[in-house]
């Protein structure tokens, strides 16, 4: 993607009373950079769609209606999700307006969408283009729909949020409660069977594979779901239960069952999960963000009980 251009500001002749504060100026710079990145992403997506339409004429009409006929990434995603999630009683036009109004009213959602696109493209070797992620990656689409349902939930529009949540679960086989808090740069790889409970919190730049459960331990009320730190990697089929904390940069191996906290940059594997290196002095890996490297097996050389 093309990098954001340099931002230039003329000094102007404003008095001190009307000049923006330092924090406001910083926020404007970050917003402008994010807008430039989103614009660059959209330009590349349209170029990819044009190329695919030329290479595969059978898809030309589909690509035109989902990508090429739209003026922005937000409009394209809103149209695509509206058509994916509509039903005989939940019309695509209603969903399109709902998605578009939500995305355009909150710049942070737009930034998160671009970060999620980049996460899939960079981390998944099977992802051949940004446009294919936008059109075909149900993990990406489920996350974008969740961002809208979460926004509705925070606005006390809970019946609509739950209705949208239900459609996402039906269509994508991904069950994320609207109240769950999810950061940006998230990859749900394959995504089928992912379950994320009501009070779960997921940080930024986290990668989660299929059939992962972030669940509760029973009928306990209140804050009862896992908290996943920035940069974590959660392997396929892992089950993390209760209000436990997975520290920043930690790894949870495939098929593991985690019931207690995992320290930052540690690795938990097995059922029940154990820490590589032992509970008293767990081995800390060098990676700060295994959610980006997607390295699932580096712990094996130090895992004395791993036997074939």
UniProtKB/TrEMBL annotation:
Under PROSITE patterns, the record lists:
HEXAPEP_TRANSFERASES
Keyword Hydrolase belongs to the record? no
Q: Where is the composition biased (Polar residues)?
A: 10-21
What is the enzyme's main class? transferase
InterPro entries xref list: Hexapep (IPR001451), Hexapep_transf_CS (IPR018357), LbH_SAT (IPR045304), Ser_AcTrfase_N (IPR010493), Ser_AcTrfase_N_sf (IPR042122), Ser_O-AcTrfase (IPR005881), Serine_acetyltransferase (IPR053376), Trimer_LpxA-like_sf (IPR011004)
The family database entries (Pfam families) matched by this protein are listed as: Hexapep, Hexapep_2, SATase_N
Which pathway does the database say it acts in?
Amino-acid biosynthesis; L-cysteine biosynthesis; L-cysteine from L-serine: step 1/2
Record's superkingdom? Eukaryota
- EC no. given is 2.3.1.30
**The keyword Transferase belongs to this UniProt entry's keyword annotation:** yes
Report the sequence similarity comment from the record.
Belongs to the transferase hexapeptide repeat family.
Q: What is this protein called?
A: serine O-acetyltransferase
Say which species the protein is native to: Brassica cretica
